[in-house]
Design brief:
Blueprint: H1 15-38, H2 45-60, E1 68-69, H3 72-82, H4 91-113, H5 125-148, H6 157-165, H7 173-192, H8 198-212, H9 239-267, H10 274-289, E2 297-298, H11 300-308, H12 315-327, H13 339-350, H14 356-365, H15 367-382, H16 387-407, E3 410-416, E4 419-428, H17 433-446, E5 452-456, E6 460-463, H18 465-480, E7 484-488, H19 492-500
Parallel strand pairs: 4-5, 4-6, 5-7
Antiparallel strand pairs: 1-2, 3-4
Helix pairs in contact: 1-2, 1-8, 1-11, 1-12, 1-13, 2-10, 2-12, 3-9, 4-9, 4-10, 5-6, 5-13, 5-14, 5-15, 7-8, 7-13, 9-10, 9-16, 14-15, 15-16, 17-18
């Protein structure tokens, strides 16, 4: 776990890194406060989750552009994980959030230290698409009450949103105007040019409007000033309850960070180290928990802004964290910031996460994967606020689908004169070996008068020892029964294990050249009944 010395060009401090860092900090301050509210914490805790974590992440990060801090999906997951344990905004809730940050951070550190960063790919694309779209819907719904100036009622996120929409007489007109204005400013600024600081403009405008207009809506209120408090007297007894949600947040949150880093590394043809990034993101979350912050992740918007501002090293993120840290003694100027503005900032940020088109396109590529994606979306809405449970169930469903595909070993059959040709396709392992055994016997039963059997193995993928042993035993039994058995097209990767298992005829088998049977010959797919194989893709 080493820290690079600033000798490499990517690690040298330049003036443009300082400019980018300070500029991003001005955007990160109101955005982090908005995400803290989303996570159920007092808004100033968002500042704690930016300052120190960025300083820690800069020491280990692989990407020079990645900006670490509060992000929408991680904040939503944090809220869902903590709601059953404490009341949002309470000291108990704050303590639980800090412990959760430590769990998330240590999980990532362990993954990075063990160099198993590939685990980030365990989150399949359909699961991520479904969760991100569902999370975006929930995040927008959660921000409707403050955006409308309505005090949230009882019930879940969606119920509160519907209740707020059904009671326009209780809306605060200035709150509505400020939230709509914030969304408009942020979206328009983004379309004019990514460097236009829409979030900063909206926040400053909201403070000015709150001071000059007769605004009686909710505001941020008193913001503690000074350096973040370091408190190690945390409720560590909650660790067992937060372990599973913490691991899920560690993986889901890292999926965003890895996507950012991979994208920029590809654009610049530079190597990206997932293990190192896990260390950086882990250190950031650990440090976030110490002053009462919450789990953090990589921000698409702030990372993109860092790159566009010309940053070239990890010093840009360090400067961002340092700028926020130096701002904390003056954080009291944010006291009149309307909560409606913070709600508008969140809504504008997650609009780009709404991807119904991506979910619709899944059906054109794979019905099974579309089912996983849409199932994840529905579970995310139904199980809210426990969206971590939705992710866990979706991951299990995706793994189950993959297992079913592994078990679905197909055998194509064709008959030429007195010779039966069988073409197995799939992965031959201990779970699918009985399937191959059954398919061979089923075809031999239908072709009792066949004198020869030719087994074409060119369509097999991985072959494990159990599968090879069962196949060898089957071939021996068939030869003992008087059937002439020939093995052809043994894949190079499977030759050694089949030979070691004693499969007859492997040494004489030619390399695979005709793994596919002729479509116009009798027999067809599956068990030889002319049925097409089921689509498990």
């Amino acid at each position: 776990m080493s820290v690079d010395l600033p000798s490499h060009p990517r690690h040298r401090f330049r003036l443009r890194d300082a400019v980018a860092g300070v500029s991003v900090a001005l955007v990160a301050i109101p955005q982090a406060m908005a995400y803290a509210e989303l996570a159920g914490l007092p808004s100033h805790h968002g500042l704690y989750a930016v300052a120190l974590p960025l300083l820690a992440a800069a020491l280990f990060a692989s990407s020079p552009y990645l900006q670490t801090g509060p992000v929408a999906t991680t904040s939503l997951l944090t809220f869902g994980a903590l709601v059953p344990l404490a009341s949002p905004g309470s000291p108990e809730f704050v303590g639980a959030a800090a412990v959760l940050a430590l769990v998330v951070g240590l999980t990532r550190v362990v993954v990075g230290a063990l160099r198993v960063g590939w685990i980030s790919y365990f989150m399949s694309k359909p699961v991520l698409e479904g969760f991100m779209t569902g999370a975006a819907v929930l995040i927008v719904a959660s921000q409707l009450p403050p955006a409308l100036g309505v005090v949230p009622g009882e019930g879940g996120v969606l119920r509160q949103a519907f209740a707020s929409l059904r009671a326009p007489e209780s809306w605060n007109s200035l709150s509505v105007g400020m939230s709509v204005g914030t969304v408009t400013v942020v979206v328009v600024a983004r379309r004019l040019h990514p460097l236009v600081p829409g979030v900063l403009i909206a926040a400053v405008g909201g403070i000015v409007a709150s001071l000059l207009l007769p605004y009686n809506g909710a505001v941020v209120g008193d913001v503690p000033t000074g350096l973040p408090p370091l408190d190690l007297s945390l409720p560590f007894g909650l660790i067992p309850a937060l372990l599973v949600p913490g691991v899920i947040i560690a993986l889901v949150g890292f999926a965003e960070a890895s996507s950012i880093s991979r994208t920029y590394a590809s654009e610049e043809r530079e190597r990206w180290d997932a293990n190192r990034e896990f260390l950086g993101q882990g250190a950031a979350s650990v440090v976030a928990g110490l002053p009462g912050g919450f789990p953090v992740g990589g921000s698409f918007a702030r990372s993109g802004l860092t790159k566009m501002l010309g940053a070239s090293s990890r010093w840009a993120g360090f400067v961002t964290g340092l700028t926020v840290l130096l701002f904390l003694p003056f954080a009291g100027i944010l006291t009149p910031l309307p909560r409606a503005v913070l709600a508008g900032i969140v809504i504008a940020a997650v609009l780009s996460m709404l991807h119904p088109g991506s979910l619709l396109r899944l059906a054109d590529m794979s019905r099974a994967q579309a089912g996983v994606g849409w199932g994840t979306f529905v579970l995310t809405l139904l199980l809210a606020p426990r969206v971590d449970q939705a992710v866990l169930l979706a991951m299990l469903a995706s793994a189950t689908l993959h297992l079913m595909r592994e078990l679905r070993l197909e055998v194509r059959a064709r008959r030429v004169a007195d010779t039966l040709h069988l073409h197995p396709r799939g992965v031959l392992w201990f779970a699918s070996a009985p399937v191959l055994d059954d398919r061979i016997l089923a075809n031999l039963e239908r072709h009792r008068d066949a004198q020869k059997l030719v087994l074409h193995l060119g369509g097999l993928g991985r072959v494990d020892l159990t599968g090879a042993s069962m196949l060898a035993e089957m071939l021996d039994q068939l030869r003992t029964s008087g059937l002439e058995v020939t093995v052809e097209g043994v894949p190079t990767h499977a030759r050694r294990v089949l030979k070691g298992a004693g499969a007859p005829g492997v040494d004489q088998a030619e390399d695979p050249v005709d793994a596919e049977p002729d479509e116009d010959l009798p027999g067809g797919y599956g068990t030889g009944e002319g049925r097409a194989p089921r689509d498990w893709s």
